[in-house]
Amino acid sequence: MSKPLSLDRPLTVAVLGATGAVGHELIKLLDERAFPVRELRLLASGRSAGTLQSWKGSEIKVQEVTEDSFLGVDIVLASAGGQVSRSWRKTIVDSGALMIDNSSAFRMELDVPLVVPEVNSNAIKSHHTVIANPNCTTILLTLALAPLANKVPIKRVVVSTYQSASGAGARAMEELKVLSQSVLDGEKPTSQVLPYSLAFNLFLHNSPLQDNQYCEEEMKMVQETRKILGTPQLPFTATCVRVPVMRAHSESINIEFMQPFPVQEARSILSSAPGLELIEDFNNNRFPMPIDVTGRDQVAIGRIRQDISNPNALELWLCGDQIRKGAALNAIQIAELLLSSP
C-alpha cells in the first residue's frame, strides 16, 4: 500500500514520461505551485535517458525507467501512455508509491477513482494506490456540466470538440508548425505523426473507430463523464475533431435538462464555478478562443444561450488549455487534494 501523504514532510515525486509535452508541464507546475518536493525523479524510455530538464534553476538528468526507479517514491505522476502505465503499475504500487495516471489505462476500472478536483473531490477517498486523470476533453466538459447538474438534473448531452495538436503530443505540435510553413511555401504537406496533415486542415479524430462507429476518443468522453458525474445511464453523444490549433481544445455543448433552466441563472452559476471564467460579449460577438486560455489554468466559457429548438436545453461554448488543465494541472491538483485531505 502507498505511504500516507503529509505536508509535514517534503515528498519524493517521480514523473514518468518526463520528456513529453505533459511531462514538461508537470515539472513546470510542480515548481510554480510550490508542491512540497524533496526529490524529483525524471523517468522516460531508454531513448530519452540522459537528456536534461530544468528544475528550480538547475538541471536534472532524465533516467531510464527500471524496476528500482520507484523505490522510496511517494507519488508517481505518469504521463507516458496507457501501455507504459499498465506495464509499470505493479512495480509502482509494490514500491509503496501512489500513482496518478494520465493515460486511459485505468479510468474505467471500478476501484480506480476518476477525478476532477472541482467536480468530484470526494472520489479520491476510495483510491487503492491508483488515481486516474480523465481525458482532456472530459475534464473541460465536466467543469461546466457539474455545477449546472447540481441545480437541475441533466437529461441529455450533445458535444462537438475542436481538439488541438497538443492532444497528440509534442511531435504533433512540432509537425503542425513545420507543415504549416510548408503550405505557406507552396509545398504539399505530408504528415508523419498524424494520419493527415493538420496544417490549414481539420479531420475527424484519429483514434480507432469502435463497433458502434464512434471513435475511441468520443467513447472516452461518454463513459468518463458518466463515471465522474455518477450518472451511468446519462444519454450522451460526442463528435471529436482535430483542428489546426497548437494546444487549447474547444467544445460546443448542448445540454438538455429535466426542466427549463433560465439562461441568466446558468450564467450566474457558471461564472462563479471553480476553474471557470466567463468571456462573453454578445454586442461584439466576442466569446472564448484558444488564445484566451493557452498557458492558463482557467477554462473559459461563454455564449450561454437558450436552445431555440428545445425549451429545456441550453447551449454553451468553452476553451481550455489541453496540456494544462486538460492534463498536467488536473494531475497536480489531485496530488494537492491528497495532501489536504484528512
Shape: globular
Strand content: 15-25%
Tell me about the largest β-sheet: 7 strands, mixed
Using the coordinates shown, work out and report the CATH topology of the largest domain: Dihydrodipicolinate Reductase, domain 2
Counted beta strands? 15
Q: SSE order in H/E notation?
A: EHEEEEEHEHEHEHEHEEHEHEEH
The CATH superfamily of the largest domain is known as Dihydrodipicolinate Reductase, domain 2
Q: What count of domains describes the coordinates?
A: 2
**Low-confidence runs:** none
Average pLDDT value?
95
Enumerate how many helices there are, as a single number. Answer: 9
Rg computed from alpha carbons, rounded to a whole number of angstroms: 20 Å
Assigned CATH architecture of the largest domain = 2-Layer Sandwich
Proportion in helices: 25-40%
The structural class is alpha/beta
Tell me, what is the CATH class of the largest domain? Alpha Beta
Placed side by side, the strands forming the largest sheet appear as 10-11-9-12-15-14-13
How far apart, in Å, are the first and last alpha carbons?
17 Å
Topology at a glance:
Layout: E1 11-16, H1 21-32, E2 37-44, E3 52-55, E4 58-61, E5 63-64, E6 75-78, H2 82-94, E7 98-101, H3 117-120, E8 130-132, H4 136-149, E9 154-163, H5 170-184, E10 203-204, H6 216-229, E11 236-242, E12 248-257, H7 263-271, E13 276-278, H8 290-293, E14 299-306, E15 313-321, H9 324-340
Parallel strand pairs: 1-2, 1-6, 2-5, 6-7, 7-8, 9-11, 13-14
Antiparallel strand pairs: 3-4, 9-12, 10-11, 12-15, 14-15
Helix pairs in contact: 1-9, 4-6, 4-9
